[in-house]
Amino acid sequence: MFKPQKLTFEQLSERLHDYETRYGFSTIEFYRRYQDGELGDDDDYMMWAGLYHLYLTSLPVRQFMKSESLAG
Question: What's the confidence (pLDDT) of residue 9?
Answer without folding.
Answer: 84
